[in-house]
Amino acid sequence: MLWDLRYSVRMLLKRPGFTIVAVLTMALGIGANTALFSVIDGVLLEPPPYPQPNRVMVIDETNIEAGLPRFAASPANYADFRDENQTFAALGAMGGAGLTLTGEGVAERLTGARVSGPYFAALGVKPMLGRVIQPIDDEVGAPPVVVLNHGFWQRRFGGDESVLGRVLRLNGVPREVIGVMPPGIQPQRDAWIPIAIDYRAENRGAHYLGMIGRLRDGVSVEQASADLAQIAAELEVAYPDTNTGWSTRVQPLPERVVEGVAPALWILFAAVGLVLLIACVNIANLLLARVSLRGREMALRAALGAGRDRLLRQLLTESVLLAVLGGVLGMVLAWLATPWLVDLAGGDLPRSTEVAVDGRVLGFALLLSMLTGVIFGLVPALRASRIDLRGVLEDGGRGQSGGIGRLRGGLVLAEVALALVLLVGAGLMMRSLAGLLDVDPGFQAEDVLTARIDLPETTYGDDESRFAFYRQLWERLEAIPGVEHASTGTSLPLTGRNNIFAFYVEGTPRSEPGLEPSSITRFVGPDYFDVMGVPLLEGRAFSTDDDSDAVLALIINKKAADTYWRDDPTFSRRLTFENPDDPEAVWFNVVGVVGDVRHDELATAPEPTMYIPMLQMAQRSPNIVLRTSLGDPALLEGPLRATIAELDVDMPVFNVEPMEALVAGSLARSRFNATLLGIFAGLAVVLAAIGIYGLISYSVNEQRREIGIRRALGADRRRILELVIKQGMKPVLLGVGVGVVLALAGAQILAGLVYGIPPRDPGTLALVAVLLAVVGLLACLAPALRAIRIDPMRALREE
pTM for the whole thing? Predict the structure, then answer.
């Protein structure tokens, strides 16, 4: 083996051009595969840091008839599921919590969560320090406590273990630190506090808790699903007004965390695998060309007693050495490319902190290198080890040709077909991204700065104090130089944070329980529509006069008007979010209609939306929106922070970013998919072009004598040019045809990833087919031009 390695090194050094091309080709293929595998390993394959993570379930409430296939649970329903189920060892709940830390220097906004007593038991995680929240901490009136995240503990307290027992003021409430969790808890939060409510006293129609449970030993997902579905059916009978149509859905946590990205990542991994396969085909073509030149060497070895197995071992050693060299360089490329891949995902990649080029990834790269070395070296080695000793020696050392040309042509056909499949996929993804960029979001993101604040409950515990703060806030923000309009709103467009409320329109038939009309509901301040550039279509916008003393006002979007008020163009019918038969029900008057805004994502059509004045229903955690004339919204960040500090020094400002950044973030996943697939397709086309060029160059060299004879017999240059190009374009056009069939067969895989175009789009297929044919023609042209410059007399003398 050492002798084979030494000889292989000498052979590779003897032809440095071939070696460099082969190593770089493999490095690109292996590097791209390794980099993407590092992402897939960290996101999809590495199990979450919980004991038996596949026993941890995420439970949703569902109402299919109401168009809610996956929804949060109401607190009262959660309490019944927790106490009545027979299949979960622990069933916990979690809700979002904005926490403001004060009294520790500069006020800081934390990402927090409110959790029920069994939450950490359901995850199965133990604290690194102290203890976790227990059911006793979740009782009404229990001493307020907090559990810290490992990262926050390290960042804010330097990993000081004496933090246990320390009292932190969160939202103005002093809470004792009882524990610090280990790293890796998902979803990431800075701190956890108990929910601490009387669950069954809460409105069953208010859904805002996520549920998570750990299965008992021996219980399957199907058994747990049936158990909770039975409880949901009993609740539907007991509480028809709020629970009609509601059931449950049980899903393993590891599956839930990655369900939004897993299909795309596996498709991209298959695509980069095709790139590597094309690279292998290319190297195989190069090795086949060398086989034809090394025929005399192989014959002499055979004549000296080398058996076929000995020749195979020598040739495979050379190909594996090539692959290992390419793999080492590919690992370096992967190490450089992996952080770029994570950044390209734009924060839309779950578990991105766990992505790294570690030992598992390096092991994958090494195994891939060895495997590809055997794959691309096997066919040439088998071909070279079949020695016609007498024929080769009598041929004067011209080498082997025979069926090699046909075999190389078949490999080029495969290259072109695979490249076309990748190029079609990339074309569909790019056209989909272009379609999303052309979608009208319903607002104008340019020159708008967004930020968020949180009003502490202890300072702003009643509506009047919040109303007073809002009035001061709007007045101060409008006074900032460069601010054209300033306002607030509870949820920004494209963030997907939707409050959905059922309602009743005056004078319309009552719907069946669970089938009431519903709408996204936003709470906004005056000038909100001017800041966001949302057009007012009818009626009026809100003003500061729409306060708690005025008639309750409401603005609807065009979709809601067309859906629920199409028979009432005057909008004289009021609506309520309460029981219309209740004499104390609160009724809203529709005062205006605005354009549709895409609140979830650009690919999702606008839904019925209603806007309520913030001075009539005070909210505690609004977004600030500022439209500027300065050209760069970021210039307002400093004045904005100073203004808030003047109003309340303990109120942090967070999530400060231009609205255009939010729009770009909403496209991150589509841009990630299109960019990677485009890069892989580009590599495939380049490799295919190299393969075509190599095939025709080899053919021209093999046919120098034939071309010389044709020229001597009077064939003009045009005829020779046509002959060579026709010979080269035959496998190209056949490959295009095979690729079109493969692309049509596999197009449905991309159905869930493209927007606005069918996965079997004929325009994309035709464009890609023509493009690859042109690339093939250009790759044939250089060898063909060299062929017409062959001197017939010199070619005949050489023979």
Answer: 0.79
